Amino acid sequence: MPLLFSFQGRIGRGEFWLLMAAASTLCCAAQWLTRLPLPPTAIAALQGTVTIGCAWVALAAAVKRLHDTEHSGWWQLWDTLTLGACFCGGALMATVLVAPYLPETHPLIINASLEHRNLLLFALYLFTEPESAACLSPFIAMTLWNLQVYGFAQGTVGVNKYGRENSGSWRS
């Protein structure tokens, strides 16, 4: 269980990708729970529990992967805040800059429910407006940095300040 839920130790690239794939698969599978003959509140509680559990496992895996590359686990907070700010800023810009200029007869807007309207506006903004580069550039930079550090960077060989190699894995 320390592999799944602990923030201590280090894991390598292979274990990181395996944990992320398992957490993502389980989280996606939880969405199929709506097909079960259960009350909606029970389904929502079950989906919420599975989603929170998967997010915890993914966060723990990311922190241990950062430890393997001699980065503090607090970098994960920076990543989350930066990506969240890029997304929220883009959504705000889409709502303010694009929404007034889209005709109400646009097929995507006519058929969209109210809760999906802002998401569609955000997507239209990102792919149609030149100003979207201001929002996309930090997002792309952070995504590439994350992909390199979490997925492809070789961890420290031997012992580092977060422990020995694979100290957070099932092989320890």
Protein described:
- It is flat and about 60 Å long.
- The model has no long low-confidence stretch (mean pLDDT 77).
- The chain has 7 helices and no strands.
- With 172 residues, the protein is mostly helical.
- It is 67% helix and 0% strand.
- Helix 4 (75-98) runs antiparallel to helix 7 and helix 6 crosses helix 7 (132-152).
- It folds into 2 domains: 1-68; 71-162.
Question: What's the helix and strand layout?
Answer:
Blueprint: H1 2-5, H2 13-30, H3 40-68, H4 75-98, H5 107-110, H6 114-128, H7 132-152
Helix pairs in contact: 2-3, 4-6, 4-7, 6-7
Count of discrete domains: 2
Percentage of residues assigned to helices: 55-70%
- Residue runs with pLDDT of under 50 for 5 or more positions: none
Q: What order do the helices and strands follow?
A: HHHHHHH
Radius of gyration from CA coordinates: 20 Å
How large is the count of helical segments? 7
Q: Tell me the span between the first and last alpha carbons.
A: 12 Å
Share of β-strand residues? under 5%
Give a count of the beta strands, DSSP E runs of length 2 or more: 0
Summarize the structure.
With 172 residues, the protein is mainly α. The protein is built from seven helices and no strands.
Notable traits:
single chain, 172 residues, mainly alpha, 7 helices, 0% strand
